[in-house]
Model the fold of this input.
Amino acid sequence: MSAENKSLVRRWFEEVWNKGDASAIDRLFAAHGTVYGLANEMTGPAGFKQFYAAYRDAFPDVRLELEDLIAEDDKVAFRWTATATHQGSGLGFPATGRKVRFTGMGIVRVQDGKLVEGWNNFDHLGLLQQLGIVNAPA
Done:
């Protein structure tokens, strides 16, 4: 089961994020699934797609590279590095045109071949600093 769960997470990152295939969200994320830590709590594909659309607007060329992938029982832990160019206003402020590189990690729970829970943490502050939205104290 762990190998299948890892494969599902790889598909999520490749199809949803790297290929920009929003329809993959419906195939891979359970109707009752819940996501934590990216914005407000999101439930189901429709809830996640609102966040996804805003993020893809801001970073249409985003590329996430899985650095680590560890599975046990029904959970998969992962660590990633993203690169992107800020080209849209989906994050609530005008595009800066800046290229960014940031990291994150998370844990998902898999049930019946779909993602049902996801806990996420990423370097949002570092991202905002690279975009020039937030300045580090001197």
